[in-house]
Amino acid sequence: MEGNLRPVLETDVERIAEIEESSFPDPWDPEMFRILARQSGRALSTTGSLIEMMVLTHRQEIVGYAVWEQKGGEGHLINLAVAGEHRSQGFGRLILEEVLVQMRKRGRTHATLEVRESNSIARHLYERAGFAASGRVVGFYGAEDAIIYSSNL
Question: Are 117 and 147 spatial neighbours (Cβ–Cβ below 8 Å)?
Answer without folding.
Answer: yes
